[in-house]
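One record is kept unedited as follows:
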Amino acid sequence: MTSQSRSTFVHRDVFLGVIFALLAAVGFSAKAILVKLVYLDRADAVTLLALRMVFAVPFFIGVALWVRRQHAAPLNTHDRLLVLGLGLIGYYLASFLDFLGLLYISAGLERLILFLYPTMTVLLTALIYKRAIGRKVMAALALCYAGIALVFLHDVGVKEGGIVLGAALVFGSTLSYSIYLVGAGHAIARIGAMRFTAYAMVVASVASLLQFIVMRPWSALDLPLRVYELSIAMAIFSTVLPVFLLSFAIRRIGSGSASLIGTIGPVSTIFMAYIFLGEHISLLQIAGSALVLGGVLIISLNSQRETRPANL
């Protein structure tokens, strides 16, 4: 292969990585919009989560079986407990709390609170491993939470009741996902990214279905056709495809670049909420979003520098 053709191949790979990361970010962001649209038909969080997972789980089972053929070694007890615990915390609990929170707050505020996960990961890592937090990161944390406060004030002005409860539920979802991320690094190193993700999603799907069976009668599935159409769309375009698109993007451009491109997520949610849900966009919301995005960018860039090998 000539140097020119090699350069063309690298540029094409980077271009595809950027496109995949953008599509993954928009796909994840669209979830809140789809949930809000389903709630217009009076579906509840328990039923909606079960529908989302039942339509998504065949894809993850297929991936799990395919990956298992590539990795002949079975999981040991320690690995199984990791998959079980992190799958329940990072995918099941985080999703359920998020769905509950969307009953009370706007899609824009929900996405911004979820986007705080890098700040929580930094705080959890510092707490667990007793690491000091630098002044730059402290300033970035202050920016993020000041931004959330501004958007929260915006929601208080345009919505009635339940804002505090909704924000607390989504904050709990973000904390659950952050705990998952702190633990997932060790698990992925042992098990492999695709294998771990597929297994963890299967665990979350089973938990969601069991929750529905215990808490709801079968008559709860007597819902309008639109609910099933939106649930299928959520399973494919906001669950399965983004998970694998993000994996493909990380393989081509690295996790740091993919996470930075993911900052478009909250912005796309705000504009999609304006278009599809009629949610109002105010200067207060724009200012708060800018603060959150700025703080997350600073933390992400700082994390990249800290994890970069010294000889690079």
User: Anything to note?
Assistant: Confidence is low (pLDDT under 50) at residues 307-312. The two ends are 26 Å apart (CA to CA). Residues 3-39 form the longest helix (37 residues).
